């Protein structure tokens, strides 16, 4: 009797597992590598790093031959770094460098390695020798990214020069930082990092990270006077524009004055 009961329990367990696997398969039906990549990227941007790691690993498991393989690995390494899983992050990046499947992506790998050493310096507060060495190592990787000849990834190279400037400022080399910020604005004027560099030039000693969401970027453009006058006026004065058809409103109605103060 016990034997029969045991067999029944085992059978039930297998049945439940089979149903679970079947449900997962149904949930994944029609989902593409691009769908999972977009989901993982959104989770990474939104600070849901553990979810991003799971999504990117699922993508690599389900679509091992995807053309997004390198991009996924880079995103996965970034997410691991955000979780302070530095060993996993470094393993991924060094493996990508060894494989060197797509040279165009190499500057992105070097940039992540540079940011890895920038982060490492934060674990040695007050230890001048150690954190200085970490910052110098970061600069070495940013140099490699910027000077890598087999890639024309302008965004990665702009980021490398921008991050080199920030790292130089962290080392107290403000004049070098200013020179690099200026170079970014000249060589990459329409790039996001060109915009960030212009903001940094207003206070090059500031080593804080600038937000790069679209609302913040728009604020930087307004701060720098890069928004066309007509467009900026329309953004700053929506109340006046909405109040133009005054014939349809009570004569006693007065539009609320718009807030014309610039916001970062």
From TrEMBL:
Q: Which PROSITE patterns match?
A: PROKAR_LIPOPROTEIN (PS51257)
InterPro entries from the xrefs?
A: TPR-like_helical_dom_sf, TPR-S, TPR_rpt
Which superkingdom, per the lineage? Bacteria
UniProt feature coiled coil, ranges: 69-96
Give positions of region: Disordered.
228-264
The cross-references to Pfam families, in alphabetical order and at most eight, read: TPR-S, TPR_6
Give the stretches traversing the membrane.
none
Acidic residues bias: start-end ranges: 238-253
Signal peptide interval: 1-25
> Which keywords accompany this UniProt record?
Coiled coil, Signal
Name of the featured protein: Tetratricopeptide repeat protein
The record lists the organism as: Caldithrix abyssi
């Amino acid at each position: 009797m016990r034997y029969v009961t045991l067999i029944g329990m085992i059978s039930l367990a297998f049945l439940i597992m089979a149903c679970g696997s079947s449900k997962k398969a149904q949930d994944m039906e029609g989902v593409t590598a691009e769908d999972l990549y977009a989901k993982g990227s959104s989770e990474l941007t939104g600070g849901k790093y553990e979810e991003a790691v799971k999504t990117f690993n699922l993508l690599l498991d389900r679509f091992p031959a995807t053309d997004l393989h390198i991009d996924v690995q880079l995103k996965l390494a970034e997410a691991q770094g955000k979780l302070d899983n530095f060993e996993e992050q470094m393993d991924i990046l060094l493996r990508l460098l060894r494989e060197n499947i797509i040279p165009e992506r190499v500057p992105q790998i070097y940039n992540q390695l540079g940011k890895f050493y920038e982060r490492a310096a934060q674990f040695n507060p007050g230890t001048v020798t150690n954190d200085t060495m970490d910052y110098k190592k970061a600069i070495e990787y940013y140099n490699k990214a910027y000077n890598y000849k087999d890639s024309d990834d302008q965004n990665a190279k702009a980021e490398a020069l921008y991050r080199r400037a920030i790292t130089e400022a962290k080392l107290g080399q403000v004049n070098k930082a200013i020179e690099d910020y200026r170079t970014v604005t000249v060589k990459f004027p329409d790039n996001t990092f060109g915009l960030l560099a212009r903001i940094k030039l207003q206070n090059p000693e500031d080593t804080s990270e600038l937000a790069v969401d679209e609302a913040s970027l728009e604020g930087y453009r307004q701060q720098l006077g890069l928004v066309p006058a007509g467009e900026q006026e329309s953004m700053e004065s929506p109340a006046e524009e909405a109040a133009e058809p005054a014939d349809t409103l009570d004569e006693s109605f007065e539009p609320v004055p718009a807030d014309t103060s610039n916001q970062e």
